[in-house]
Amino acid sequence: MTIIDNDEPALPETGTRAGDAAMTATRVTSTEGELAAITVTLSAPSTQTVTVDYATKDGSAKSINGDYVATTGSLTFAPSETSQTIILEPLDDTAVEQNETFLVQLSKSGECDLGDSHQRTVIILDDTQQCVALRRTTT
User: Fold this and answer.
1) CB burial of residue 59 (10 Å; 0-12, 13-18, 19+)
2) Whole-prediction pTM value?
3) Nearest 10 degrees: Cα torsion 46, 85, 88, 53
4) How far is CA 84 from the centre of its chain?
5) I need a labelling partner for 126 at 20 to 30 A (CA). Which of 9, 30, 106, 139 fits?
6) pLDDT class of 124 with cuts at 50, 70, 90
């Protein structure tokens, strides 16, 4: 006796749980004094509200030194919404310095998984011109 499976494949459940939350860019670059944006997306829509927390973390750029405005917050995805934006504020200064970095980190919420893309680097490009003076010497 042979049994032939001719049933339609079962459809996955949809809308019961959100997909992974991830930041789309691997790194963000911004000039001092210009706002930067990081988009956070859900890999699949949900029928429920989804909340993801975020926070900045010092790297070579230090918020206490006035390199950027430290921030924390929550992104709330309404049902069927899959994209939210975090706005970051690198600050302008007059110091001649190397480019600096800080991090943006997502915190796990109960409604979704964060996967491997829960942290991104923000690069602040120094906009202060470096001047070099050369003097001719005679021998």
Assistant:
1) middle
2) 0.73
3) -10
4) 10
5) 106
6) confident
